[in-house]
Amino acid sequence: MIRALLTDLLLIGVFVLIAGMLFGGCALHTPMSQTLMFHDDGSTQPSHRTSHGIGVVGTGTLSSTHFLRQEANRRFSVDEAIDNEIEPANVDNRSYALYGSFYSDHGFALSATLGTAIGVDATWKLWRRNYLTVEGSPGGAQAFLSHRALNRSHLGVAVGTGYRYERKFFDVENRFEGDAPSQVPTYEVLPVHSAGGRLSVVLRPKLAAPGVIRGILYAGYAPVFQRPVITFGITTGVF
User: Fold this and answer.
1) pLDDT tens digits for 115-171?
2) Which residues does 215 contact at the CB level (< 8 Å), separation at least 6?
3) For residue 220, what are the CA distances in angstroms to 35, 152, 231?
4) Whole-number mean pLDDT of the chain?
5) Contacts 24+ apart (CB under 8 A), 129-135
6) What's the whole-model pTM score?
7) Is residue 10 within a helix (H) or strand (E), and if so which, with residue range?
């Protein structure tokens, strides 16, 4: 059963990886090392402790991104351009990726994600049910303090607060006719800084053991743009 589950996950992973390469772009990935919070510490039966994890993850944005397009056009448009409507490269933070995780027995976890979102992240147990997670990728970085509120045999819940730095890419290629100035890059980057809270929920269906499903919802505020930032992530795999 376990072998069949891993085979299915691998096939699904190959599919979403190909789809992501065709339709996705640079994005801030979902830190999977954070699932260390839900490993068995004597509170769940049967035990959910494991030394490694593998699976697939997808992310997206729920809040409006129209203001990012407006700001990019304001910052990066130039008078001599033949097309001032600058195209965003995955401004909605869509991503499809495979992840692999390692969990130590000393309150530390490390994870890597590969796909349209690429990055690494690490989580440390600070004290009791409180954890620190940091993440870095081409799409940005984030750091969160989280508290595990619930860890039952079929359900886990954690809440946290932290900071996100996202790099939004905008395609500025082919804006000029004739000889384009050599100093004009293919992409411009619009930084988005936000702070807010994150909810993480883990489901452990009986039929999917040892596989699990994880959902993440982040709701924050970007003070420079005075706009909300709401993103989500969905993961299935072994962690």
Assistant:
1) 777 788 889 989 888 999 998 888 788 899 999 988 887 888 999 999 999 877 666
2) 200, 201, 203, 232, 233, 234, 235
3) 21, 28, 9
4) 72
5) 129/37, 131/34, 131/36, 131/37, 131/158, 133/31, 133/33, 133/34, 133/160, 133/162, 135/28, 135/29, 135/31
6) 0.74
7) helix 2-23
Q: How many domains does the chain have?
A: 1
Residue position matching structure tokens 């919802």: 217
Q: Is the pLDDT of residue 234 over 50?
A: yes
Rounded to whole angstroms, the Cα distance separating 159 from 149 reads: 7
Q: Which two tokens stand for residue 172?
A: 């500025």
Question: Which pLDDT band, with edges at 50, 70 and 90, does 20 fall under?
Answer: very low
The residue with greater pLDDT, 146 or 83, is 146
> What's the CA gap between 60 and 27, in Å, rounded?
9
Domain encompassing residue 40: 2-238
Say which amino acid occupies 42. G
Cα separation, 37 vs 124, whole angstroms: 9
Alpha-carbon gap, residue 5 to 51, rounded angstroms = 18
